[in-house]
Amino acid sequence: MIERLTYEHRTARMTTGVDIEIWVKDGKIYYNKKPFIISLEGDNYAENAESSVSVEDFEKKLAKLNIEEWEKVSLPPKDIVYCDGSDWTVKVKYKGQKEIKREGENAYPANWNKFIKLLQLTVGKFEKITF
Predict the structure, then answer these.
(1) Are residues 29 and 20 in contact, defined by beta-carbon separation less than 8 angstroms?
(2) What pTM did the predictor assign?
(3) Cβ–Cβ contacts within 10 Å for residue 77, how many?
(4) What is the pLDDT of residues 71-105, one digit of tens each?
(5) Cβ–Cβ contacts within 10 Å for residue 70, how many?
(6) Which of 5, 32, 94, 102 could form a disulfide with 22 if both were Cys (CB 3.0 to 4.6 A apart)?
(7) Rounded-to-integer distance, Cα 11 and Cα 130, Å
């Protein structure tokens, strides 16, 4: 069973970004959702909110993403200095297991859009950062 999932995404200029934290408590999914520039109004901010998605549905869709198999992805190669772009981190913690952490810069796993859709289904809309 999932205990916690966190997703952080930033642009190089630090003008756009999002932090999402999802956890399970008493058989329900709760979340925090904060844009980099926090506005307490609108759909892009939520604190300790309850999701309408069931734990079972969330876990089933998350398992299909195989996050543990994601490799670190980066474009361009590390030996080239790059000033624009974005970086992301996803952490998943299952009860009784070590935390899984995956990262990337300016590139994404093949099923990234499915991951973002799962997050948006769970926490509502937020600005999708792309490179």
Answers:
(1) no
(2) 0.86
(3) 7
(4) 888 776 555 555 667 889 999 999 999 999 999 98
(5) 19
(6) 5
(7) 9
